[in-house]
TrEMBL record:
Domain (FAD-binding FR-type): residue spans on this chain: 1-102
Superkingdom classification of source: Bacteria
Record's protein name: FAD-dependent oxidoreductase
Organism: Dyella agri
Keywords: 2Fe-2S, FAD, Flavoprotein, Iron, Iron-sulfur, Metal-binding, Oxidoreductase
Amino acid sequence: MQINVKLIRKETIASGTMAFHFSKPRGFEFRAGQFADYTLIDPPETDTEGNTRGLSLVQAPFEEDLVAATRKRDTAFKRVQKDLPIGSEIKLDAPYGDFSLHKTQSTRAVFITGGIGVTPVRSMIAQATHDKTAHEITLLHVSRTPADLPLKGVFEQLARDNSNFTYVMTFESALDGWKDEHGRVDAAMVKRHVPDLHKPIFYLSSPDGMVKAMRALLVGLEINEDNIRTEEFSGY
Ligand SMILES: Cc1cc2nc3c(=O)[nH]c(=O)nc-3n(C[C@H](O)[C@H](O)[C@H](O)COP(=O)(O)OP(=O)(O)OC[C@H]3O[C@@H](n4cnc5c(N)ncnc54)[C@H](O)[C@@H]3O)c2cc1C
């Protein structure tokens, strides 16, 4: 579907990370985990990368708004997007992608994400929680510091609402008083949080080459590559 959507709200969801809420067009259908191409209309500036970016749909299909979340950077697209006035329109071309939750509810889902890579994961876990599916779900979410972790409060709430969902945060920087996981995701951390490594479906989504590194880590743990699904946020 190609349609213009209206910006209804924007907010900061972590240090250097913003969410943009758009009105959902009537009849727009998608699967949790998919993404949309957003194109700026007559932007005041542009650069060689152009006026379109693919951004995951953060909200789940059952929810009212469409939400895109991005890490702010000094590019023409991001500058214009940050300053978009409420009520302005952006062109949406969607849905795309096949990064979505498997149907077999007795198979655990393990998500390993870095920073902003968590956007499609939020959609999938929110929809599973809403539908009260029986999936056991584990999310390992890494960022530099707690302040950088997008949607932290949202996942904490989902973990309270869904007893099948376990949210594990880990931070690259050493933190005073933080007794839980710290450091990047490594084999030992995966083993600590995933009971039977050979049964789940693993979902990897991130910018910055983390998807490639995590795939290598899982393959090193002799996890069947058929059980690994990925969404690389190319462009960062
Ligand atoms: C399926 C899919 C889903 C995605 N979902 C999301 C999402 O939910 N949220 C999200 O934020 N992104 C998402 N992305 C990535 C998104 O499409 C953009 O590529 C990304 O946001 C970068 O856009 P930009 O305007 O910051 O950089 P661009 O202008 O596109 O930058 C292009 C290149 O310029 C260089 N560059 C530009 N600025 C800098 C800088 N400040 N520092 C270093 N290098 C720089 C880099 O080499 C970069 O690769 C997704 C991508 C895919 C493929």
